[in-house]
Write a structure and sequence with these properties.
The chain is α+β, with helices and mostly antiparallel strands and 311 residues long. It folds into 2 domains: 4-160, 2-Layer Sandwich (Ribosomal Protein S5, domain 2); 165-285, 2-Layer Sandwich (Alpha-Beta Plaits). The chain contains 9 helices and 10 strands. The strands form 2 sheets. Strands 1, 2, 3, 4, 5 and 6 form a 6-stranded mixed beta sheet that branches. A 4-stranded antiparallel beta sheet has the order 8-9-7-10, covered by helices on one side. Helix 2 packs across helix 3 (122-133) and helix 7 packs across helix 8. The longest helix has 16 residues, at 101-116. The structure holds adenosine-5'-triphosphate.
Length: 311
Amino acid sequence: MKALRLASYAKVNLGLEVLGLRADGYHELRTLFQTIDLHDDIVLRPRRSGIVVRCDHPSVPRDGTNLAARAAEALARHGGVTQGVEIVITKRIPVAGGLGGGSSNAATTLLGLDRLWGLGLGPAGLQPLARRLGADVPFFLVGGTALGLARGDEVYPLRRQVRGHIVVVDAGRPVSTAAVFRRVDESLTPRENSYSIFLFVSRDLEGERAFSILSNDLENAALAEAPALREAIERTRGLLRGAGCSLAALSGSGSSFFGLFEDARRAGRAARALEAAGLRSLGCRTLSLEEYRKRWSRSLGPVAVRVGRTR
Ligand code: ATP
């Protein structure tokens, strides 16, 4: 039986601004997304009917609420597909860590099933479905370094892609994105004049990488939601800076914290310092738009790989 085996990549937010609450109840955001090569594995295996999810992670639902299952369901309905699919997810991206694992799984499932079911929608045709699944899902149809506007679901790739080494520290304490946004609402004053991400982008066009002006507006709310994280995050930030990072930030609503490094030597120094302090880290690399696309065209090439049954 033909099946597709795909990598589903994580993201970090290099910066994130919350501008206010929209009339539709969502938040108006500005963010800078960056794909990294940390990934889950997804196998899509055709079935005669029904959508079945298998996943090795205890906190990830295996029913119709799994974001990959919701993506398959939405695409089948959209394309009038009666075939089914078994979706096998091997998790490596920390769950509820602000690294977009569920959203990435959903986008990967859309792209894979578009190919497997021969629908021919492509990333552009899948955008409206992706938006309905979640604000971060459209980004994973694009990848690389990109500006996210509106709910974060209007995605514009940056001309100069960020390249570097990323050290991710998973605080091991999942933080609910919805709870963090509820806390943000308690203290939110609309800030239409917030402009650090636009400033970053315009300086970038002039050849300057102004990482120091980026920050994450969700950090205080995330720390209010999970006060136990404060000490670990402050320690992590200090160690990443001490090792020479260009940027140290919380990703999304946390709890993952990361450092961006220009070279492998400094990233390695950071990983060793974190280990000595008893903090576990994951070393990875940024994936540029071009690299992301190349990986996709390789795995969605004309010949689907043959994979054996897992169960
Ligand atoms: P978000 O900001 O969207 O909450 P996140 O990156 O912080 O994302 P995820 O790993 O996507 O966190 O998990 C968020 C929640 O979504 C978890 O509580 C998990 O149970 C649920 N979930 C549903 N489907 C998936 C999936 N395929 N992979 C991971 N989590 C999933």
